[in-house]
């Protein structure tokens, strides 16, 4: 197709600035974990947006943070490497920021070094005054020649269209990299694992979530006694301490049952089939510093 454009867009920012929510809103489907806790995205997740004259592949990167483990270092490395490799960067900052903080400055320096086309997204503008938004825009404008600066709160369809149009302006002509029916390059096992982890993150206490890793042991399509299709899924939730295992399971198994119930509901929506979900909890002490586990979160592109 003449004048058809395509390219890769990296969504970068500090932890908990709303990158995954923005990705899901743009994609129109859940392709990234969304919880109100930092450092929830551990690997890059691609969302594919097919438009009349373009195919845009979004990469949701882990939030930039001060690493305290091998996992944290790997997450940061993944985020940093996505910037120079992208055709366009969406740099997400919070409207509540008082100027350019240390974390945002580090990201900005990497963008400058890479000299990549960048669109600044100022998120959560509903939490501040118009004057604060204006001052923040002026501060960032003095630091880099952004292709566009777009203030948003909860993304609405007009905002999505503005962002997509700005991205298209900065893409080059190219082929569609994926089939137009596809919306993510995650496997069904990846999606199932992320859905289970998201429910655990939302339900568990503050100290537990970042030591959680979900592994799908079995995912097989079968039939019920009534001969209707069903996905049989078995998964293990790994945690770093024995005390965390008790919290995840909960009194008389209630917490694990709740995680399983919420995850099954989302899985059935995603897979469009009935789901039989079985969950186990195992302790893998200090897995966040175990190279064998951490390498699962390294990008292979």
Question: What would your notes on this structure say?
Answer:
The chain has 301 residues and is α/β, with parallel strands linked by helices. It folds into two domains: 169 residues, 3-Layer(aba) Sandwich (Rossmann fold), CATH 3.40.50.300; 110 residues, GMP Synthetase, Chain A, domain 3 (2-Layer Sandwich). It contains nine helices and ten strands. The strands form two sheets. Strands 1, 2, 3, 4, 5, 6 and 7 form a seven-stranded mixed sheet that branches. Strands 8-9-10 form a three-stranded mixed sheet. Helix 6 runs antiparallel to helix 8. It is globular and about 60 Å long. About 5% of the residues have low confidence.
The CATH homologous superfamily of the largest domain is called P-loop containing nucleotide triphosphate hydrolases
Low-confidence stretches: 37-42, 65-72
- CATH T-level topology of the largest domain: Rossmann fold
Total number of strands: 10
Outline type: globular
SSE series? EHEEHEHEHEHEHEEHHEH
**Integer count of domains:** 2
Overall helicity: 25-40%
Q: Summarize the biggest pleated sheet.
A: 7 strands, mixed
User: What is the count of DSSP helices, taking H or I runs of 4+ residues?
Assistant: 9
* CATH class label of the largest domain: Alpha Beta
**CATH architecture annotation of the largest domain:** 3-Layer(aba) Sandwich
Class derived from helix and strand content? alpha/beta
Distance between the termini: 27 Å
State Rg.
Answer: 20 Å
Oligomer: single chain
Portion of residues in beta strands equals: 15-25%
Mean pLDDT score: 81
């Amino acid at each position: 197709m003449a004048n058809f454009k395509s390219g890769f867009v990296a969504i970068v920012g500090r932890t908990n600035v709303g990158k995954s929510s923005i990705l899901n809103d743009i994609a129109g489907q859940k392709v990234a974990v969304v919880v109100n806790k930092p450092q929830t995205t551990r690997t890059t997740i691609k969302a594919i947006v097919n438009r009349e004259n373009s195919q845009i592949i979004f990469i949701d990167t882990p939030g930039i943070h001060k690493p305290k483990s091998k996992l944290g270092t790997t997450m940061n490395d993944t985020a940093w490497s996505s910037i120079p490799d992208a055709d366009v960067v969406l740099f997400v900052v919070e409207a509540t920021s008082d100027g350019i903080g240390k974390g945002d400055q580090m990201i900005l320096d990497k963008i400058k070094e890479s000299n990549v086309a960048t669109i600044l997204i100022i998120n959560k503008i509903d939490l501040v005054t118009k004057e604060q938004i204006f001052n923040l825009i002026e501060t960032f404008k003095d630091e880099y020649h952004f292709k566009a600066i777009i203030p948003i709160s909860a993304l609405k369809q007009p905002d999505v269209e503005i962002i997509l149009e700005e991205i298209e302006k900065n893409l080059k002509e190219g082929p569609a990299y994926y089939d137009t029916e596809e919306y993510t390059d995650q496997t069904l096992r990846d999606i199932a694992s992320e859905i289970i982890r998201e429910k655990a993150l939302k339900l568990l206490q503050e100290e537990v979530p970042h030591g959680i890793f979900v592994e799908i042991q079995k995912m097989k399509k079968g039939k019920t006694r009534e001969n209707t299709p069903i996905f049989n899924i078995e998964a293990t939730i790994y945690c770093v301490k024995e005390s965390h295992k008790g919290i995840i399971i909960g009194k008389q198994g209630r917490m694990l049952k709740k995680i399983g119930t919420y995850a099954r509901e989302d899985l059935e929506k995603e897979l469009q089939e009935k789901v039989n979900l079985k969950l186990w909890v195992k302790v893998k002490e200090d897995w966040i510093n175990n190279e064998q586990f951490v390498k699962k979160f390294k990008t292979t592109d």
